[in-house]
Amino acid sequence: MRRLSDTIARLKALKTAVAPTGAADRLVDLDGFGPNPGALRARCHVPDALAPGAALVVVLHGCTQTAAGYDHGSGWSEIADRHGFALLYPEQAAGNNPARCFNWFSPDDTRRGGGEAMSIHRMIAAMTDAHDIDPGRVFVTGLSAGAAMAVAMLATYPELFAGGAIVAGLPYGCASSVPEALDRMRGHGLPAAAELEARVRSAAPHAGPWPTLSVWHGDADHTVRPTNADAIVEQWRALHRLPARPAVEERVGGHARRAWVDAAGREVVEAWTVAGMGHGTPIDTGPGGCGASGPFMLDVGLSSTQRIAHRWGLAPAPADAASGRAPAEARPRPARQGAAARPNRAGDARRPPRPEPESGVQKVIEDALRAAGLMR
After folding, report:
1. Domains of the chain by range and CATH?
2. Which of these is catalytic: 106, 144, 214, 303?
3. Rounded to two decimals, what is the model's pTM?
């Protein structure tokens, strides 16, 4: 484990890294989706005249973000309107996590049949029924804590998803506490590939086929180290029984892309390393692009949203990275504004109270974790 002073300093940095508010909200609430043990809010976007058998993309925001804010930055609803698929945005509540991080490091929230994972499962079922979604075309993506939660959904409910896309995330089962989560984010103590594979295989009674995977990470990410992207690739390459050597190694607009193919020649795992990019989602706001730049939404001239949609067969290939625009540095982040905790909606399951922390060093650690929104 790292020094306590280093951990607390990083917690303070996370607390002040807040995305701007005030963006137009294109999402509506999804009510009555059933049991909600994770006490999450459900939001969605359904284009007008959605055709029967359309696809559904589940999008999980990062820490300090809202569903509407992440949609505005990533441009997912723009692409959904252009090409006719539905979106589901689970949203974390400040009452669960003051920094609005999905609790990807909590065993109670990342297990099949319980916590936040079960809440998201129920939302998907409700959307599928309400909008005649093709159950064979359900996908999940996310950023940072949302990306780690997306991996958890792929592991705990693999039969639900055709594919996933992980942006600056972490492998499933790599942490079971906040201190472990902080260490894994920095690339310390990641389990070996065989252990990571075993943790996915034990998460659900599923023998395959497994969802395809697209992994995105900036090579200058100091919040979630790029070694986590490598660990995710190893975890899912092992599940798919793929060779160690990628079948594809190429440069796209200055960025590296690798892909692994199965016995039928189908790309099932790909990994993008975005040159010069820090922690965030790569977007392209130029002509033909989508989204809006801001904290954690980094305009590098490469639209992960459009390329992920294309990979899933939901949209044509974009021309974003062909311009070879230089990667953008992460923009300065504004100081955190006070945010009131969102009360539980009627019918939401309430979490049991947590015992009072012990005194001394343990209390210092827990107070710092709560201040950063990484502990309830």
Report:
1. 4-371 (3.40.50.1820)
2. 144
3. 0.83
